[in-house]
Amino acid sequence: MVKPVTLACGHSGCRHCLATLIGIETFPKCPLCKAPIGTDVTLHVNVALDDIIGDFNVKCNKSGCLWKGKFHEHEQHLKRCGKFQTACANDGCGEMVARERMAAHTAQCAKHKLPCQQCGRKITRESFEEHTASLCSNKRVLLHLTLHLSECSERAVRCAVTGCTAIIKQKNMPQHSTNAAATHSVLQEGRSSVCGA
User: Fold this and answer.
1) Stated pTM of the model
2) SS3 77
3) Quick one: which of 33, 60, 143, 150 could link to 67 by a disulfide (CB 3.0–4.6 Å)?
4) Among candidates 75, 8, 74, 88, which has minimal Cα distance to 43?
5) Can you say how many angstroms the Cα of residue 40 is from the centroid of all Cα atoms in its chain?
6) Keyword set for this entry (predicted)?
7) How high is the pLDDT of residue 16?
8) Ordered DSSP codes for 19-43
9) What is the DSSP letter of 172?
10) What gap in Å lies between CA 113 and CA 184, rounded to an integer?
11) How much helix, strand and coil, in percent to the nearest 5, is found in the chain?
């Protein structure tokens, strides 16, 4: 009996249960003696009875949990009990899982959302492979961008002549080769003499 209340007839019951009864019945009655309760009654906790019940020795009713303690400690225990079943928080899952197994469940849950490296959207694990393989529009953009960058005339490139430190736009490379021909020749001759050719 959680938060016991005492009715005018003298019988006591759980506040939540009696409040539910009063809320759904047109003419609520005491479940034991059938005396009318009334719909306007205020249910005050019977403090003396609550203290007595709070000192009862109880054990956790969750399968596999070995916790034992006082009834008034039970609510706090349930907030951290590893065997307590909670619903998976991933949208669309809702599977009931023991708290101690929730991290493992979440790590493999089909409804867990993962960030797509191409588009940044969060995609459920069950849809992730299909999304990254074919649906992600940014993947196509990235493939085209990679191809474009390898051919782009505006990209900066290093001169291919060993010893030349020039970094210029790809479209200007022919002009650079013409303008720096003498320097490139000297660099090539120096390289040849170092190599012994």
Assistant:
1) 0.50
2) helix
3) 60
4) 8
5) 45
6) Metal-binding, Zinc, Zinc-finger
7) 94
8) HHHHHH-SS-B-TTT--B--SS---
9) G
10) 56
11) 45, 15, 40
